[in-house]
Design a protein that fits this description.
43% of the residues lie in helices and 13% in strands. Helix 4 runs parallel beside helix 6 and helix 12 runs antiparallel to helix 13. It is of the alpha/beta class and 364 residues long. It has one domain: Rossmann fold.
């Protein structure tokens, strides 16, 4: 496949879609996008854990909600059984490295057993045609190499968060080979998606770079930075979400079994940049004396160098990055500054989704 592929309204219109973790940052963006395509979006998650929350600001009464815990097998099975979705995006997770040091048990229970629970519920429900299990680029056994990791590289993870995401990959693989591939009458094509260091408007999580920057810059304060030399594959939230959506479409096609495997979604090589470079660019865009300083506190270990190779997604899915780093940062700052001026979060988000689609049409 060549060029850029936009989501198909004909595919999504009226289709029942379950999103676990829909009250989170990425889940809220995905819910709004699929809702705009005409899908029947069903959410399963805990209440939002940040204030403010994109979910609370953007959603009113136009979607079905199940407030429950992915760690509760009975609740997960009841939700899937009663709603009978056709497509599942599993995004519910403990999604931060630093809290995984503070509560490793919760991290493993959520990220590993939560994945077991949703796949077990899918196994028991004949309506599901395709499932995208979202893990992380941190699932790899990071050797601090200066080249990008491909989907065939060994899994690992030094900290509980990264390790739990590697475990979730193994769980998905085991369920796929044990219960779905071997039963042609009950086939559900299951794939995993690996992306990380996602930026964009509406993220207010703790211990995450962009929210920390926005909170400090918004108050006119200097932002504290922990690891200025760490290199990450930065990308706007719409980039991996467009990959997840495209992957789900392929999984639900007649050739879907060929796509039931692991997929990386990451930026081009030149957009894998040090933290300090990203903060400097954001400070210049924000203006008004925005600045940062180096933290002098002790911090737990985090990987210093990480890149992923998304050439498989580009070649086989027709997926590609549309926003370079400067554009991704500009869209992010535009979102927050518009929200601070009083514009509605849902309107800002939908406008950027539409603009992203226009980029795909203009470049394909």
């Amino acid at each position: 496949m060549e060029g850029l592929v936009n989501p198909s309204p004909d595919f999504w219109r009226g289709r029942s879609v379950l999103i676990t973790g829909d009250t989170g940052f990425k889940g809220s963006w995905l819910s709004l996008w699929l809702n705009s395509l005409g899908a029947k979006v069903i959410g399963f998650a805990l209440s939002p854990n940040t204030e403010p929350s994109l979910y609370r600001l953007a959603f009113k009464d136009h979607k079905e909600r199940h407030y429950s815990d992915i760690r509760n097998l009975d609740s997960v099975c009841e939700c899937v059984k009663s709603t009978r979705p056709e497509i599942v995006f599993h995004m519910a997770a403990q999604s931060l490295v630093r809290p995984s040091y503070q509560d490793p048990v919760e991290t493993y229970a959520t990220n590993v057993m939560g994945t077991v629970h949703i796949l077990e519920a899918i196994r028991m429900t004949e309506s599901v045609e395709a499932a995208v299990v979202v893990t992380s680029d941190k699932c790899y056994d990071n050797r601090e190499w200066h080249w990008a990791y491909r989907e065939t590289e060994p899994l690992g993870g030094r900290d509980p968060y990264s390790n739990s995401k590697a475990c979730a990959e193994l769980v998905a693989s085991a369920y796929r080979t044990s219960f779905f591939e071997t039963r042609p009458r009950r086939r559900c094509n299951v794939a995993t998606a690996r992306a990380g260091n996602v930026i964009g408007g509406g993220d207010w999580s703790r211990d995450r770079l962009i929210p920390d920057i926005v909170r400090s810059f918004g108050k006119g304060e200097s932002v504290e930075i922990r690891s200025p030399h760490a290199i990450r594959p930065w990308q706007h939230v719409l980039e991996p979400l467009s990959g997840y959506i495209r992957l789900a479409e392929c999984l639900a096609s007649k050739e879907g079994a060929a796509f039931a495997e692991a997929w990386n979604f990451g930026p081009v090589e030149t957009d894998c940049r040090p933290v300090s470079d990203v903060v400097d660019r954001l400070a210049a865009m924000w203006a008004n004396g925005a600045r940062w300083h180096l933290s002098d506190k002790p911090h737990p270990h985090e990987a210093g160098f990480l890149k992923v190779d998304a050439s498989k997604a580009r070649t086989r899915l027709g997926w590609n990055s549309r926003l370079d780093l400067d554009m991704a940062l500009a869209w992010t700052i535009d979102w927050y500054q518009a929200q601070l001026k009083g514009e509605e979060s849902a309107s800002i988000t939908i406008a950027q989704i539409a603009r992203y689609g226009d980029l795909g049409r203009s470049r394909s």
